[in-house]
Every structure is written in C-alpha cells, then in structure tokens.
Amino acid sequence: MNSYYHVFLLLFFHSNLMKADTLNYVQKHVEVLLSKTGSCYMTPLPQECSSVLNDFADYASNFTKCSILNARPIRICENCIDHYLSFRNKYQELLSTVVNGTSCKSIFMSCDRLDAILEYHDNILSIWDKGHCDACYNWSTDVPKLSNETIHFIELFNGTMACINNTHIDPSLNDTQVICDNCMKSYLKLDNYYKTLSADAIGVDSICMDIVDSMNATRSIWSKTLNCCRIRKTPEVIFLVCTGVISLLPIFYYLVLRYFSPIRDLPNVLKQSRFKQTILRSLGRSN
Amino acid sequence: MSHLSHSSTSVADGTVSSISNIETTSDTAQLLSNEEASTSNYTQLNKSVNFEDSDDDEFHGSHGIRRRQPQQKIEPGSMNVLSAKYESLDYDTCENHLLLDEERKRGYAYIVWKDMARWFIILLIGIITALIAFIIDICIEEFSNIKYRELKKSVDKYVVQDKLYIPYLLWVLSNICIVFIGSMLVAYVEPVAAGSGIPQVKCYLNGVKVPRVVRIKTLIVKAIGVITAVVGGLAGGKEGPMIHSGAVVAAGISQGKSTTFNNDFKIFQYFREDHEKRDFVSAGAAAGVSAAFGAPIGGVLFSLEEGTSFWNQALTWRTFFGTVVSTFTLNCALSAYHGRAGELSFPGLLNLGKMEPFPFQFYELPVFMFFGVVGGLLGALWNYINYRLAVFRIRYIGTPWLRVVEACLVAAASATCGFLMMFLLNDCRPLGEDPTKVPLQLFCADGEYNALAAIWFQTPEASVRSFLHDPIGSYKPWSILTFVVCYFLLSAWTFGLAVSSGLFIPNLLTGAAWGRLLAIVIQAMLPSNTINPAKYALIGAAAQLGGVVRMTISLTVIIIETTGQISNALPIIITLVVAKWTGDFFNEGIYDIHIQLAGVPLLPWEPPPLAHNIYASEVMSHPVFTLRTVENVGHVVELLKLVSYNGFPVVDPPLADDVEVTTYKRLRGMILRSQLIVLIQNKIYNENANTTWSNFNVDMNMFRKEYPRYPSIDKLDVAEWEKTCTIDLRPFMNPSPYTLPHRASLPRLFRLFRALGLRHLPIVNDVNEVVGMVTRKDIARYRVWRHRGHMGMEELILSSEI
C-alpha cells in the first residue's frame, strides 16, 4: 500500500515540474509502477525473456520426446542426458535473467493458479528423478559423465546379451541348455555386480533406472524365456519328511496326554452355607 | 458349664476346617455358648455350620433358576464354577477413628498435596509405560530382523543345493529355542504372566484380587516373554502384554515401594490402599493401550469399556493425561529411533500405517454389515476352538514342563506351516513393486520374490501393514485363502499357551487377510469398478478382532487412531457392532471365556434380569462370624485361623447368653482381617478390659506399612498369656458399613455392591441385627447365560480347588 502512495506522490510531483514529454514520462512511470507491484501483467515482454522462454519450450519438448522414445526399454538416463542438461540449464537461465531490474522469473511465475511453466518443468523433471537418473552419472566434472559403475555394468550387460544372442541353438530341439551353460558365468557376474550396487535388498531406492531395467530384462530372459534358473530340481524329500514328522508331533503329544495322563483328583464342590439350609435343618431337628 | 465335645475334623475341601457340633442350636455361629467365655478366658469356637450336611432341597431351584444337579465333584474346565480362592479388593474407604484423626491433623494442604502427587504419578506411569513399550518394540524389531536376515541367507544358500531342510530345521530350531526361554520363564517363574494379561487386568479392575498380577516379577517375565513369543515366530502380538505392563507399572509406582526388592522409598504412603491403587491401575492399563497402539483416546475408552467398573470424572481426566503422555513419549522415542527425532507426526509412527480416507456409498453399508457377520461367525468359531483347547489344557496339561513342551511344539508347527506354504504355493511377485523387507526368491525366477515368504519373514505386525496397504494384485487369492486358514488355526492354538502373547495382532492379521480376499472376490464380480483393497482389509481386520474380543467403542477408536483416519469411523463401527451381535449369538468374548474358566467371580455391568424375587436372605451367607466390640485376643486369633473370611461384623455383646434361642446381635461396625492382623502384629491390646486405650500410638501408616501383603495369621506369634488380653475394635472398625435389610432384592443388592465397589455387605433384620453377609461370590454365582437367542439365569457352584 505504501508503495502506491509513493508512486502517486511522485507522479503528482513530477507533473508539476515538467509537462513537456508527458507520454514518455507516463510510460516510464508505469514501468516503475509495475516493478513495484509485480511484473505479471507487463506488456510487451522484454525481448530477452521471451527468447529464453522460447528456448526453454523447445528444450522441454526435446527432452519430453527423448524420454518418450526411450521409455521401453528404459534408456532415458543414458540417451537423454544432453536434452536434460540443456533443459535444466535453460530453466536456471530463465530464473536468473534480469532485464532492466525485472527478472524473467517474476514475469513468468507465480502469477496465476495455473502456473503452467513451473508445472511443466516439475512434471518433466519428475520422470528423471523417479528413475534416479542422476545416479548413473558422475557429477564431479563439469560435464557429467557416465559413472564407472554404470560403464562397468553396461559392459557386463552387453557381454551377457552378446553371449545369449550369439550362442546358436538348434531351433528344432528348442533346447536352451547350451545357452545356459555357455553364459552362466557372465550372467552370474552381472547379477552379482548388480547386487553390490545397492545397499537395500530390492534396489529400487538408489540405482539408476536404466540399470534396473536392463537387469530386469536380463533376469526375465534368463529365467523365463531361456528357463535357465531351474532351482527346483529334486522334490526335496528330506524336507517334506521333516515337515511331516514335525506336524505330527503335536497331534501325537496331545493324544498321549489325552489317553495316558495320570488321573487327577477332581475338585470338590464347596458347600455353601445358606439361610435356607439352616432353617430346614433346624426344622428337621425339631421334628 | 456345658463344654461341648469338639472334634476338629478337617473337611476334604481344606480351607474351612469345620468343627462339627451336634448339640448346639445357635444359628449365628455365636462364638460363645457359655458363661465363662465372657470373662475372656480361652474360648471355644462353636460353629453350627455343617458342611457335610446335604440337603436335597437345595438344588430344586425355587425361582426358575437353572441349577445344577447335586454333585460333589467338578469336571475341571467347567464354566459353571466359581473359584473360592479369589478375593475382592477393598474399594470402600474405612472411616474409622484413625482416618478422622488423620484428616483433622493434615487439613486441606494434605489434600492439595495428594492431588498433585496423583498427577505426578500419572505422568510417571505414562512415561515409564511408554518406555517399556518402546524397549519391547525395538527388541522385537531388531531381533526379528536378525533372525529373518540369517534365515534368508540360509535359504538362498541351500535352495540351490536342494537342501531346503537345513534352513527349515534352522527355522524350527531357532523358534523353539527362543520360545523355550520365554515359556520356561512363564511356566516356572510367573504363571500369571501367561497369555495377554487383559483378562487378569480386567478382573483386577472389576475388583477381584488376582494374586501376583501386578508384581514387578510379573512385569519382567511379561516383557521378556512377549519378546521371545513374537521373535520366536508364534502367532501372537505384543499389545495385550503391553497393557498388562502398564497396569503393573501403575500399581508399582503409585505405592512408592517394592516388596520384591524389599525397598521402601518412603513416598506415596497415602496411596497404599486398594482404592487408590485400583484407580492408578486403570490409568496404567489405559497408558498401556496407548503405548501399544499409539491411541490415547482408545486407551481411555478401553479402560472404560473393558476394565474399570467404578469410574469418575476426575479419574477420566487423569487417565487421559496419562495416555497422552504415554503416546507422546513413545512417539518421541520411536521417531528418534527411526532417525527422525522430533517429528511427532511422522506417519511411520502409526501402528497400522497411515490409511487414506476411503469413500463409501450408502449402498456399501450392507457390505460392511456382511463383513461384520463374517467376522462375528469366524470370531465365535475362533473362541470355540480356543475354549476347547483351554479346557483340554486345564484337564491334561497341568505340569509346567508339559506346558513348555507344548509351547515349543506350537513354535515348531508355526515354522512348519510357514515354510510349507512358501514351498507349496509358488506365489511370485516382481521385485520392487511392493515394499518388501526380506524378499526371498526361493523357487521364483530371478528378479522375483515369494509373496508368502514376504509375509512370513516379518513380524505379524508388519504383515498386517502389508495386507492393509499393498496393492490389490500383490497376493494370489489361493495364497491368501491358505494363509487365512493356517493363521486362524495357529492363532487360536497359540492363545492360552504358557507364553505371554496377545491376540490383537494375530486376529487383525487374519481379518485383514480375509478382508483382502473378499475384496479380490468383489473385484472379480464387479470388474468395472475399482475396489480399494485397503478398505476391505481394514474392515475385515476390525470385524475379525471384534468377533473375538467383542469390544466396540474402544476398538473402533483404537483402529481409527492406529490408521490416522477419522473418516472411516462409521464403516468400522457398523462392522464391529454387527460382529459383536453375531458373535454373542453363539458364545461370549474370549476374555470372558477365560475369566469364566478361571472361575473368577466377575460382576457384570448389570444385575440379572427378572431377579427381583430373589431376596437378600437367599443370597447371603447365613451363619455370620461376628466379633464383639471389645474382643478377646485368643478368640480373634482362633477365628482368623478357623475361617478364611476377610470381613467380620462387629456387634454388641448379646444381652442374654441363652444358647437355646437363636440370637442375632446388633451391628456396630465392620472390621477386616487385614486390620485385625495388623492389630495383633503390633500388639494393640490390653491385659485389662477396662484400661483406657489412648496410650497407644496408632495411626494409618501402621496399616499402610504392611499393605498389600499382610502376614498370614499362622505367621504371627501370639503368646499364650496374650490370648487372654482384650482388644477394643471400635477405633479401628468401619463404624458405618453399608447394610441392606434382608428383604432387599438381588438387583438392589447388586447395584449397591457393584456401584460402590463393596467387599462385604452385612444383611440386617428389622432391628439392625446381623443375619447374614453378602460378598462378591454370593452375588457372582447368579449368572445370566445367553445362547442362540435364549437366555436364562443359572446358579454357579463354588470350589476352592480350581
């Protein structure tokens, strides 16, 4: 409220002093007015801001396109890093650019309840964050590079897939055992390496989604398509016998107790002393 | 002098050795029948009650009461017997001269001080109960984590070698070892710590003194017992024991001393009486509920619904304060443990996990009612199975070591059940979609885990959370069905073993499982609708638990508070009420069944209906053992040794000692056995009956010092010459006990007795002469039964051997 007063006082004061270039003067002071009240409704937009916004929109669409194209199998982290970086940097630029004391941020953001720019930014980034894509990269250098773990994993993964694809089997027999035997070593190496990557048992918390998905795909191919993971080989006879014996023990125990437990004395009923009894007794006695 | 032939024959029932006396006609068990007695020589007790006498008429039943056939022996495990061993608490304040003296000396400052002390004690109760709950929580969680992690390693290692029996036997062995420790403690050290403890606390709050139930030893055994039971993989929960722990803590702190450690802190002496102690215990039980579930309001309501028979507004306030302190302390401790210190609204603190509000439509109310019916039926079945097992245990599993073996067998069977289910039902789920702590692959493909192993390889509480919150496709219907059947039977089998574990969590788990199963069925029938499995799992859990314990209000509030969602109140309450009604059609709540099996004379809320034609003269015990206002010490000692009664009317000496006429004597007051014992112990008596009594320095603390464990009369050393001394009971007796005329009806008697928490109620005739005495067992033997829509009243028999 105070700022309004200042502005109007200023306007009034100035108008008394010089009345020559009124138009120029008014326009200038409207800007002052806007800068004081918030710049959401400033027209026209400053050139710099609109060009930044334009670029930002382009990058957003590029990154979105890249994410969608790399959705299955998931390679978003690996393939869209450039789009992600430019998108992110442009957003920072949008936030930090200041034209004539007015920041582009104040023009574009928090002006209405839709807040489309911020909303799109958050949505687009959420896919990146949900996939823990940052975990794939080493961020200590200027340009992020694939971290050593990721590179090593990709090597192992490619090796395993190559092994699976390159082992020829007789299509008529449909016997995958050859593949299993051939690639077991590299598969196990990959699997074990994957397990070391995360502290938590499932690995959804911290591992980059590209790796998780590659691993899931490999495991699925390995144990379902190729059926290499036949754990249940024998019917576990000893186990079943053990469970049978142990489940029969309680029944046996109860039966023994039921039929062989020593016969105990049954509790006696306590005679209660009541008025009626004594009356009856005294009557009986007097008779 | 007609010295009567006195043949002291000890009757088989043991407690009351009756002196059969054929000659006398005195009906009031008058203690003297000759001239010499009044000169205070060695007195002879003449007792006209002949317990061997059998009157056939007695069992005919005069007013439509179902009476049992005359019988001398009772089959153990019968629900129609009251144990004569249980005694009542003295809730009524004894307004004797000592109390008046104390009030005169202390003034209002004392009252203010006492009030402040009460609040302080409640604060302590809240904090300590929560800390014990916290320790139990953490121990269970940490030990279970270690156990299941090691088992998983073992399974992972041996499954590829086709040696699954190794991890299986490892599991069985670890279960047995852990349960063995707890079971040994319970069976040999403190048998009263077995089970959930809620029935015992309920009896205590109803006014029955359950021996050893609020001792520190019980608390220790209970705490260790519950940790071993849950870690040992039994289908038990930690909630009941926590409630019991709260009660023990309350009883312990409020007394300012520990008899077990022989340590008197010389504080809070003024709370050393049954009245104050019971009020604190009700607050402690509430604090226990609050610590177990994180449900402060539920705790207060639990105390109100299940426990405390005598409730007042000030106590409600204090209880609520205690529960809030308890929840607050627990949340502080747990949030620090979870690494989020200070975040008291952290959703991980909610016991059953945060539940989203589920929208429900008007037409869904019948569905909830259907769930209630299912819960009631399953609950009644559960109670029936458990009842049969309890009877079997009473009859055949008597010795402690047999009970330990049984507990170990159940532990082994639990592991077998779990492992067989994992082995046979290959329910595989991809990793990462559901939150799983110990994903066990077993026979699943790489990248998958066994859904049943995930349920079994965690504490039952975590399993409840999984069933409540996991997405609808997480479990196959067949897996859930098998699980429901197994867990239902296991939990019914486990409750009542010689381990301390409760039934809340197992029943919530069973209920959540079948609720989820029904949700899947509904989803299959209505493919176009999206069914929220969490909603039906929660309703199912509530229904199952409600069907077993038959609580309504407190359970609703507890479930609301543990899921942090108040808008679900209506569906839950509808379900619970229907479950209770359905279950009540078949049998009683599980706690009541166990209370009845133990023969505890519990007084229900209401007097038996249609009982206005039963009069006090029928209810009362007839020949009353009375003491005169100035009594001979030898006589008092003899009387105390002879009978097991705890209250004696004090009467005027008879005007004429006429043995031929039935005489009753005028009531002057009531004196308790404990008071008499303290008087004799401190030798508050005089050689000469006519001396003034003022030179004794007696105050209330003399009586408080011995509380609550008074020595038995046999332990007291009374020299022969002392027996001729006299004792003036007037300053110590309660001069104005509540009395009723002999024509009072049973409902009137009941209400007076129950509402005031009385222990003894003398029945007087028109001229205020004592004709009989009513105690808790006299009233409790009239019990209302309800079964399949019929009801009636039966008269229970008493036994001193169960």
Automatic annotation (TrEMBL), chain A:
GO terms for cellular component: cytosol. This is Osteopetrosis-associated transmembrane protein 1. The keyword Transcription regulation does not apply. Keywords: Membrane, Signal, Transmembrane, Transmembrane helix. InterPro entries: Osteopetrosis-assoc_TM_1. The chain crosses the membrane at residues 237-256. It comes from Mythimna separata (Oriental armyworm). The keyword Transmembrane helix applies. Residues 1-20 form the signal peptide. It comes from the Eukaryota.
UniProtKB/TrEMBL annotation, chain B:
It is found in: Membrane. GO terms for molecular function: chloride channel activity. SUPFAM superfamilies: CBS-domain pair, Clc chloride channel. SMART domains: CBS. Residues 733-795 form the CBS domain. It holds the Pfam family Voltage_CLC. It is a multi-pass membrane protein. Its main location: membrane. CDD domains: CBS_pair_voltage-gated_CLC_euk_bac, ClC_6_like. One of its GO terms (cellular component) is lysosomal membrane. Residues 51-70 are annotated as: Disordered. Belongs to the chloride channel (TC 2.A.49) family. This is Chloride channel protein. It comes from Mythimna separata. The lineage of its organism: Eukaryota, Metazoa, Ecdysozoa, Arthropoda, Hexapoda.
